[in-house]
Design brief:
By secondary structure, this protein is an alpha+beta fold. The protein has helices at 13-26, 30-45, 120-135, 194-211; strands spanning 65-72, 83-89, 97-101, 104-109, 112-116, 143-147, 153-157, 160-165, 170-175, 180-186, 215-220, 225-231, 236-245. The protein has four helices and 13 strands.
Length: 246
């Protein structure tokens, strides 16, 4: 390690606020944040992104995707909004496709893709989900996404789901290849009985899976509820259940 040189940096209150938030978010010091900024300054300014190796985004997919353009969201790597990339696929999918994972969102129209936000790993996962969906027959594969109380969205391949009515509750379990999530739903002022919960939930899940829609789950356990259903351009079918996570 070379000799350290101490310099004074004058910043305004807005910059100080950003630095404090980044320090808390990533658990690193302000000086380390500034050093990272210096390290990546030229790459960001020139939009070259060489240190970030954006070619890693497509390296596991052969010639299926061609990276056309890429950069930093809002041209500021320190704000933590992630990256963006535009790609061209060697295939077309019917209709528009949208895939969300973590802080990233992938949108595909025809054979053109745009991925925006999040880390490089989250962008790779979005592309992997899309690629697997296409490889295994498009709508023949089902997915479920979970939006937690911090607005983080995770998407999984839906291997199976179970809806089990019990004496006073309904237990619903969603399973992927990696893990599973289980909720206990209870009657309330809207769904006044176990039968009402079971009927509404099974109808919506059957429709979503049969139609190839992504099952959407939105958690808000501060208010003791979970929303389950699906959403398309034509339909919004989401039910809010009084619930807890098992």
């Amino acid at each position: 390690m070379g000799k350290e040189i101490i310099i004074r940096v004058r910043i305004d209150e807005a910059d100080s606020f950003v630095l404090n938030n980044l320090e808390k978010k990533y658990g690193i010091t302000k000086s380390q944040i500034l050093r990272e900024g210096i390290k990546n300054f030229e790459a960001v300014r020139e939009n070259k992104m060489y240190p970030l190796r954006m070619n890693r985004l497509t390296e596991n997919f052969g010639d299926s995707y061609k990276l056309k353009e890429y950069g930093v969201v809002d041209a500021d790597i320190l704000l933590g909004k992630g990256f963006w990339a535009e790609l061209e696929a060697d295939y077309h999918m019917k209709g528009d496709e949208i895939v969300r994972f973590g802080s990233s969102i992938l949108e595909m129209h025809g054979n053109l893709l745009r991925i925006k936000g999040g880390s490089l790993a989250e962008m790779q996962t979005c592309l992997k989900i899309l690629h697997n969906k296409r490889r295994k027959g498009g709508l023949g594969m089902s997915y479920y996404s979970i939006e937690d109380e911090d607005d983080k969205i995770m998407t999984f391949v839906l291997v199976s789901y179970e809806v089990t009515p019990k004496e006073n509750t309904v237990v619903v379990k969603f399973s992927s290849m990696e893990n599973s999530v289980t909720y206990e739903l209870r009657p309330d002022m809207v769904f006044k009985s176990v039968d009402a919960i079971y009927s509404s939930l099974t109808n919506k899940l059957s429709k979503a899976v049969a139609s190839g829609y992504t099952v959407k789950i939105s958690e808000d356990f501060d208010r003791m509820y979970v929303m389950i259903g699906y959403e398309t351009e034509e339909e919004f079918e989401m039910d809010r259940f009084t619930a807890s996570k098992l």
